[in-house]
Amino acid sequence: MSTRDQLKSGNGATGMSRRELLRAASAAVVAGGMSNFSFAQSAAGNSSTSADKGKVFPEKFLWGCATAAHQVEGNNTNSDFWTMEHLPGSMFKEPSGDACDHYHLYPQDIAMLADLGFNAYRFSLEWARIEPEEGFFSNAELDHYRRMLAACHEHHLTPLLTYYHFSLPRWFAIKGGWENAKAADIYARFCEKATRHLGDLVGYASTMNEPDVPQLLNWFNLPGVPAGMSVAQMMQAVLANVRKQLNAPEFADFFLGDGKKTRDGLLAAHAKAKDAMKSVRADMPVGFNLAMTDDQPAPEDSHLEEKRADVYGPWLEAARHCDYLGVQTYSRSIVGKKDLAAPKGAELTQNGMEFYPECVEHVVRYASQETKVPLMVTENGIATEDDTRRVEYYQRALAGLKRVIDDGVDVRGYMAWSLLDNFEWQLGYTPKFGLVAVDLKTQKRTIKPSAAVLGNIARRNAL
Ligand code: BGC
Questions:
Q1: Residue 401 to residue 411: CA distance in whole angstroms
Q2: Which of 379, 380, 433 for mutating ligand 1's site (highest number of atoms within 8 Å of CB)?
Q3: How far is ligand 1, taken at its centre, from the CA of residue 66, in Å?
Q4: Percent of the chain with pLDDT over 90
Q5: Residues whose beta carbon lies within 6 Å of some atom of ligand 1
Q6: What residue owns the CA closest to ligand 1's atom 10?
Q7: CA 394 / ligand 1 centre spacing (Å)
Q8: Reported confidence tier of residue 138, pLDDT bands at 50, 70, 90
Q9: Which residue minimizes the CA distance to atom 12 of ligand 1?
Q10: Beta strands 445-447 and 436-438, pairing class
Q11: What pTM, to 2 d.p., does this model score?
Q12: What is the per-residue pLDDT across 234-274, written as a single tens digit (0 to 9) for each?
């Protein structure tokens, strides 16, 4: 029996223990033994025979959780974020440190995800590990991600691989990040190398996570931003300071930089990255993940269309040329001249957003109308210490998603954000987005009731 057959049949048929099978599978895939693996075969068949037909999701629907490397792996020491987290007076509440040590604990985390009932896992590569110095690529780190992909297949999880999720190699940020004229070529080279090493195991590839965020920051309203300042303006002030502290006058990263220049750099990088990936594996489904709030017009002086054109416009156009679009949404925004504060009395989540799970239904409808490509909800969730609110959030979000699917919209899957309580960027470890709690000292995982609720929906493929 080939390793591929063993992976498909599970450990019962081979007589091997799960640990032995994982070891054998990892060794085989690292050696390139699964090069013919087709992503379509990896979607675990969902069983929904006993469920009420009206509540059933489409066959082969992907149910998963999402993470991002810097937020869970730990010790991402060659990245721009690690550097900034350790500057005196840093804007980060705390450094990422060991994070959830997912770098070492991924085998148990991936097994847990599968045991909960999911059939997909969205995670990201850490470019700073793979190319820690410009032009130096680490095969050992590429092999690490190959083992992660192999572990997904062993557990019948379709892997959704994001090539870039916010954090950058430090050397790239020092050279101007996405504002550097050579950024797109440098990034495409990385994507090509990564696809050569990993592409045969990828279910869905994403060139980048939320490349519209630098523009979104011009519209966003966040607690703690000084009056009269946009989030983007506040970030500019932080950037000036970081450049001084690092003695790096060109330094720019994903959040800190010129929004428009960053967007142009990212658009060029996306196009070249997509071509690079396809040049290696033409049949690999390639898209990207777009941050979208459920934009609703303020009763007066609404600039909603202007916001949409500014933030989403060029990216929706790019999505029309992709195999799929990943849609990521958490709440709504009432759009006046900028995004207004949440309505008086609205329930707020831990990161100051309005509790508004219907955003999924609205945003998916809008994205489908605009792009006509298959969609995947690649992030949706809520920051709360009260897991009962998380359960209600997911139930309402999924009821909305079902309505859209019943209306004929092509949605291929739903990834909850996030598998683990993790490093929420500038806000450190305070906001709790996880379906699973993590003790940061012992790395012990504790499954929350919401994980079981969502996992059971996934297992039944039905609400
Ligand atoms: C990002 C994640 C982040 C999540 C919750 C998304 O914008 O992709 O990295 O943790 O939102 O804030």
A1: 9
A2: 379
A3: 10
A4: 83
A5: 68, 71, 209-210, 291, 328, 379, 417, 424, 433
A6: 424
A7: 16
A8: very high
A9: 424
A10: antiparallel
A11: 0.90
A12: 888 999 999 999 999 999 999 998 889 999 999 999 999 99
Max intra-chain CA distance, the chain: 68
Residue of higher predicted confidence among 19 and 308: 308
Ligand 1 centroid, distance to 327 Cα (angstroms) = 12
Q: What is the mean pLDDT of the chain?
A: 90
pLDDT of residue 19: 44
Q: Which of 417, 418, 424, 433 to mutate to test the pocket of ligand 1 (most atoms within 8 A of CB)?
A: 417
Q: Quick check: 210 and 291 in contact, CB under 8 A?
A: yes
Mutate to test the pocket of ligand 1, among 425, 427, 429, 435 (most ligand atoms within 8 A of CB): 425
**pLDDT band at 113; cut points 50, 70, 90:** very high
At 24, is the pLDDT very low, low, confident or very high (cuts 50, 70, 90)? Answer: very low
Residues taking part in catalysis: 210
Using the structure block, give the residue that is written with the tokens 């599968």.
Answer: 114
Which of these, 206, 186, 190, 184, lies nearest to 322 by C-alpha position? 206
* Spatial distance between the Cα atoms of 285 and 273, rounded to a whole number of angstroms: 13
Overall average pLDDT of the 110-137 stretch: 98
CA–centroid distance, residue 210 to ligand 1 (Å): 9
